[in-house]
Design a protein that fits this description.
Elements (H helix, E strand, L loop, with lengths): L23 H24 L3 H4 L17 H4 L14 E3 L17 E3 L16 E3 L2 H4 L20 H8 L5 E3 L4 E4 L2 E4 L3 H8 L8 H27 L1 H53 L12 E4 L9 E4 L7 H24 L1 H20 L8 H22 L3 E4 L5 E4 L2 H39 L7 H12 L1 H27 L1 H5 L2 H35 L3 H14 L1 H34 L2 H4 L11 H37 L10 H7 L11
Helix pairs in contact: 1-11, 1-12, 1-14, 8-9, 8-10, 8-18, 8-20, 10-18, 10-20, 10-21, 11-12, 12-13, 12-14, 12-16, 12-20, 14-16, 16-17, 16-20, 18-20
Length: 679
């Protein structure tokens, strides 16, 4: 149960099978914390009003689809009654002249039972007009309707009807039908409707103005609808090139690394040095320190690029007399960098060989247990379930607020102090649980890969299953502790971001305050990165040795410091090859998606699967392929880190390494025969 002490004596080497629970206290704390999360979730789901998010507010601040009470300001007014909008679920912006500015200025809106579908092209009838609420319209008619009525056009006088046709209210014509989208009425504009509009009498407003107003609201929705239809039509492209292509090409790339990692690493290192040498020679030529003849090239050339007026351009790689002094200083700088790079390369040859061996061993470990590639499925499913639940609770927490209307008529949702604390608790729970799931994924993969390093000659059956069992049975507390530390930093960063947004105006007038805020935010960001890196290596040691979290973290830091150069080379080479793999897999899938979208079934306008544009299907395909490549390459990176840290731990034993695979032993120049400690 020790936190910073060492639970197991280091008598047993290799992968420890017999172990006991670690960091039990934090396991209990995490379970209790989740008890609070369930209480908050239950409170939110029982008290939250989802109508606040489902329906819209009219311009008086009353919620459609409900039967709200009057606000205090309206209750004191004479003649106003509480509205009954229980059957009036859709929100309609009835004044088309406000559509073009509604993103900046809220447009007038009313609650209706259904979106208007009758237009003035059918005649100047009541159904072709939508009116402001009668009680707030300022007009008087015979046989007054209900205060909240919106269908009284036929009761207006002739002058009032003429004003309505001229877009002066209180009623406004429906130029096109409207369609409900998320309980909001959205205009549907077609060419046929515009032709009908051109023949209709629209008073003082031109058809062009009306078209512009309607297009301001409907244009974006039409494009979005077209893009969504393209996605549905191109589902085969997304499945084959995105999901299947990302899977196949990621596996192919990792197989490629197994056999050609060494070649790619050496080509990269040699190319880097050659480029530095070439740049240094180029700067020396420009500075006049050496002549072009000394490096075996001609100092000038002519490009016969004849244009329409017959001009010819010349180029030269000889001395640049105007900038010779500048190039001279750059040459000395480049020479120094090149010399250091060459020296570093020579000193790192042995470590580079070890790095290549680690990459190949990681590929061998994955090949020995191919199902390890799908180990991220468990954390992925947990994340999907958790985020679904967390978002649901967050939405209902938001809906627990109380509606209030200020003196200016603006409606807002306010939360009492209890709800605010519950929201903060829930936010921290999201950070903590997310990092906990990440820790589980690391532990699952590391434990299985470690079995290959330490027990490959007598590796037990189902190493992945045994790794999952060890992590869940013994080390949930260690994962909870490590994830808690990172979650605290993430929560502090969220608070700092909130403070930064609230003090923007203050910072504009005080550059020192702005600088301090930027520094604090950067330091916390960097601290989070460092803690995540320490956590990753600590989890590996917990999975291998069964130590408590604190001891594993301290021991991991010691191993990283003692093997700093070796680890730097491995990380540099490994990160480059995995990054290159992501780019290659994504690029291939994107090209294949473009080629498929160029097939006749997607380019023929008469085809049922005709695409208006291949851009969105290709973007979605590329995104899916990159995510899959990132997941599978993440397994490979985890395998590399596990092999690397296991190797460092093995080397740290007396006379070690004792368990290293033949590839690593050969890279060290040692016998490939396995020796037990003490032999």
């Amino acid at each position: 149960m020790a936190c910073c002490g060492k639970d197991n004596e280091e008598k047993e080497t290799g992968l420890i099978e017999k172990r006991r629970c670690t960091d039990v206290l934090f396991c209990i704390i995490f379970a209790a914390f989740w008890g609070g999360m369930f209480i908050i979730g239950g409170t939110a789901l029982s008290q939250g009003d989802p109508n606040l998010l489902t329906y819209g507010f009219d311009f008086h601040g009353y919620l459609c689809g409900t039967k709200p009470d009057l606000y205090a300001q309206d209750a004191n007014a004479t003649g106003i009654t509480a509205p009954d909008f229980s059957k009036r679920e859709v929100l309609h912006y009835f004044n088309p002249t406000q559509y073009s500015t509604m993103t900046l200025i809220p447009a007038n809106s009313v609650c209706l039972e259904a979106c208007p579908t009758t237009t003035i092209a059918s005649g100047l009838v009541k159904a072709a007009f939508t009116c402001d609420y009668y009680g707030t319209s300022g007009v008087t008619v015979s046989s007054p309707p209900d205060f909240w009525a919106t269908d009284y056009y036929d009761k207006l006088s002739a002058l009032q009807q003429l004003n309505s046709l001229a877009m002066a209210g209180p009623c406004y014509p429906n130029f096109v039908p409207y369609t409900p989208v998320m309980n909001r009425c959205v205009p549907t504009v077609t060419e046929e409707q515009l032709l009908l509009l051109s023949s209709a009498n629209t008073g003082n407003t031109s058809t062009g103005d009306i078209t512009y107003m309607l297009a301001s609201m409907s244009g974006d929705s039409d494009k979005i609808q077209e893009y969504l239809e393209d996605l549905l039509k191109a589902w085969m492209v997304i499945v084959l090139c995105g999901f299947l292509g990302g899977l196949v090409f990621s596996i192919v790339w990792m197989t490629f690394l197994r056999y050609f990692a060494g070649c790619m690493a050496w080509v990269t290192v040699i190319s880097f040095n050659v480029i530095l040498i070439a740049l240094t020679l180029y700067c020396a030529l420009k500075a006049g320190l050496i002549g072009a003849d000394e490096v075996g090239i001609s100092n000038s050339g002519t490009s016969s690029n004849t244009t329409l007026i017959g001009n010819t351009t010349s180029w030269s790689i000889g001395e640049d007399t105007e900038n010779a002094e500048t190039f001279e200083y750059v040459t000395y700088l480049m020479a120094g960098i090149t010399g250091i790079a060459l020296l570093f390369t020579l000193l790192m040859i042995r470590r580079l060989m070890i790095a290549i061996a680690v990459l190949k061993v990681a590929s061998q470990a994955i090949a020995a247990m191919p199902l390890i590639l799908f180990s991220p499925v468990i954390p992925f499913v947990l994340n999907v379930v958790f985020f679904g639940w967390a978002c649901l609770v967050a939405v209902y927490l938001y809906a627990c607020g109380e509606l209030k209307k200020d003196a200016a008529g603006n409606v807002s949702i306010s939360w009492d102090e209890t709800l605010q604390y519950m929201s903060l608790y829930h936010l921290f729970g999201i950070f903590w649980t997310t990092q906990f799931i990440v820790g589980l994924g690391v532990m699952f993969t590391a434990g299985a890969i470690a079995a290959y390093y330490w027990q490959r000659e007598s590796m037990p059956k189902s190493p992945i299953k045994r790794s999952i069992h060890r992590a869940v049975r013994y080390h949930v507390g260690s994962i909870a502790l490590g994830s808690f530390i990172v979650a605290v930093v993430q929560f502090i960063r969220a608070v700092l971001e909130y403070i930064d947004r609230k003090t923007k105006k203050m910072q504009e007038g005080n550059p020192i305050l702005k600088y301090v805020m930027c520094c604090v935010k950067y330091c916390m960001w960097y601290l989070e990165k460092v803690l995540k890196y320490i956590n990753r290596n600590a989890y590996i040691l917990v999975a291998v040795k069964g130590y408590s979290y604190c001891y594993s973290a301290i021991h991991a830091i010691k191993l990283l410091i003692m093997n700093m150069a070796r680890i730097a080379v491995i990380n540099t080479v490994g990160d480059f090859l995995t990054w290159l793999g992501k780019i290659v897999v994504t690029g291939i899938c994107g090209v294949l998606a473009f080629l498929m979208c160029d097939m006749d079934q997607y380019t023929d306008p008469d085809s049922a699967n005709y695409l208006t544009s291949p851009i969105l299907p290709v973007i979605v395909t590329v995104f899916i392929a990159y995510q899959e490549a990132d997941i599978f390459m993440g397994v490979y990176e985890m395998a590399v880190d596990t092999i690397m840290l296991s190797f460092c731990e093995d080397c740290n034993t007396s006379g070690g390494p004792h368990y290293a695979p033949p590839l690593l032993m050969s890279a060290l120049g040692k016998s490939t025969k396995k020796t037990k400690p003490g032999e």
